[in-house]
Amino acid sequence: MVRQTIQIFARVKPTKKPTFFSFQVYTVDNEEHSGGSLEFVIPRDLADGFINNKRESYRFRFLKVFDQATNQEEIFETIAKPVADNVLAGYNGTIFAYGQTGSGKTFTITGGAERYSDRGIIPRTLSYLSMVYTTQISYLEIYNEVGYDLLDPRHEASNLEDLPSVTIMEDPDQNIHLKNLSLQASANEEEALNLLFLGDTNRMIAETPMNQASTRSHCIFTIHLCGREPGSATLHRSKLHLVDLAGSERVGKSGVGGQILTEAKYINLSLHYLEQVITALSEKNRSHIPYRNSMMTSVLRDSLGGNCMTTMIATVSSEKTNIDESISTCRFAQRVALIKNEALVNEELDPALLIVRLKKEIQCLKEELAMVTGEQRTDELKEQVKLFLDDPDPDTTLDLGPDMRKIHHCFLLLKVHLSYSLAFLSLPVLSCFLSWMYYFCSASSSGPELSIEQQEAFEIFRNDHGDRLTLEDNKAILKQRFAEAKALGEQVNQARNRVSKSFSLPPLPPATHISSASGVMESQPNPQSDTVEETLRSQIEEEKKNYKSTFGRLKGLKTEIEHLQHLLQRSKIKLKRDFQDWWSQEATRLQYWHHALHYGIPYYMLHIPFRALSSTTMSSTSIPLTGDHQTDADILAFIRARQSLLTRTGISSSIHAGQKRGKV
Ligand code: ADP
Ligand code: MG
């Protein structure tokens, strides 16, 4: 068992423009023996009428304070990697980010939506873990005390209520179970990242400008690991929660009303309950901890004062206007640091595996006996190696007992096998991947189909949209990475061909010979071995090294391409959604126009000029209306939308001026 207090770190968000004040209000000191400290220094307000040069200073201790210049890689290496290592060792882990809205919680946990290097803790941890163990993933959003499953694969969510709602159940042993929260299996990094992308897209789509759910909800991304050491019958089951909490700001300060106030109450209430739990835990001899008061504290029960190694990242903003909230975030962190958790390795014995292991042991002993009595033959060893290689179970073992001669011989057999099989390592996977990527790239983003008119307006809207530059940049980077991947792919193929060619030369006789009478191997000098062979061997070794390093680089590139692909896809979805919102707003506005027409606004006022970019046959001087209410509304919506777009791009004013001159 490991007893450990919750580890606390602080991260200061970069200010957009460094100002005199942002420089002044805080200092970071990581040189201290026992960790780092963050100090806020506020000059006393002189407006009180008397001169007071005293400064108020607030100093908080953390394990380490990450200043504005810290990048995502450093955050992962220092904070998340040690937690991930513990999770691999079978402990439960939690990392949660706490701070006011806009202080960088989502940026730290999930990452920025623009650059590959802005990947946050979740995608980096998935890359780190997925090579080792099989995983299952869940992604829960808690909004107004209701849980939602973000990994609903149906892609139909247009608001949060469309997602399956998750409820808490407690078994007789008081263990918490989440009903309706799906656990999705992911066999590799790519599948895990796809799940993260699905959850984030659902989270984004479910959010409207009136309902900024992402800042007012708690999101818990959980990775469940299960694995065992090769040959061991002990299973390790552990889970890692990566938590992006709602903004911690107080309601009174934000001055909100109506629906938003109700939400804020809920959020403040759940953060208030979190504080209550934390206060109760930090007090000695408290028997009752009020976990059940809110869904979030119930779900994170183990992470707070239970069987878990927990880390908190306090995200603070350095602007003077946010200093109250930053101080309150740090105060909260100091209380959190008092909580002691007791983490256990989550092990269980797999009886089926135990039987298999014991059977293998018996077999081993029998073989040893046979060896001693001279029954063992080298072909049996060959057969054993063959069975071992053919077994699809990645955890299978080659049990040879303690006899070093047998072990040496099997190693030799494996070496010969490895050299030959490398020559046949092909890259169909790579080419499949590249062609899939090309297909994926050219495919249009998901969402409802647009009519021809909408498509035309969408083109202009897209050129005008604020995210266009990021989108274009990412497209350009993606294109570049494709080209790099292609070039690397060719290099890998060439290296592979060179290795194959070397192997197509007559095979070298084995360097050892086996005495069939005793089943014992002896090393003997090979008469045919000469310098030519030696050169050939070293060439092959060199090519193999080459092949391995290029292949490694190619793999890294693949991860980057996938990530960029996700960013692009997300931007596309966002763009389409913004367009749909704008389009429906325009349509509503034109309904009013139509009514105005009925109430006497002259018809000529609706003669709207537009740019001749349409393939339709509309005249640029008059629009005949059909008299049908719905059709006319649609026609007018389109004209109005076009007009509005042209005005935004500055084209209409010039056309309009030209037309006026023509009429005069
Ligand atoms: P929160 O989730 O706490 O409300 P966000 O993570 O959404 O805040 O951050 C708000 C904005 O600030 C985002 O645009 C984000 O990209 C940016 N941001 C936050 N932290 C950093 C950072 N360390 N470096 C660069 N940009 C950041
Ligand atoms: Mg956020």
From TrEMBL:
Database matches in Pfam families:
KIF9, Kinesin
The segment(s) forming the Kinesin motor domain are 5-339
Q: Which GO terms describe its cellular component?
A: microtubule
Annotated PROSITE patterns: KINESIN_MOTOR_1, KINESIN_MOTOR_2
Entry annotated with the keyword Nucleotide-binding: yes
- Per the record, the major location class is cytoplasm
Q: Which UniProt keywords apply?
A: ATP-binding, Cytoplasm, Cytoskeleton, Microtubule, Motor protein, Nucleotide-binding
Q: Which GO terms describe its molecular function?
A: ATP binding; microtubule binding; microtubule motor activity
Instruction: Give the binding site residues for ATP.
Output: G99, Q100, T101, G102, S103, G104, K105, T106
At the top level, the lineage of the source is: Eukaryota
| Location relative to the cell | Cytoplasm, Cytoskeleton
UniProt KW ATP-binding keyword: yes
One Gene Ontology term of the biological-process aspect is: system development
Gene3D superfamilies, per database record: Kinesin motor domain (3.40.850.10)
Q: Provide the family line.
A: Belongs to the TRAFAC class myosin-kinesin ATPase superfamily. Kinesin family.
Q: What is this protein called?
A: Kinesin-like protein
What species does this protein belong to? Electrophorus electricus (Electric eel)
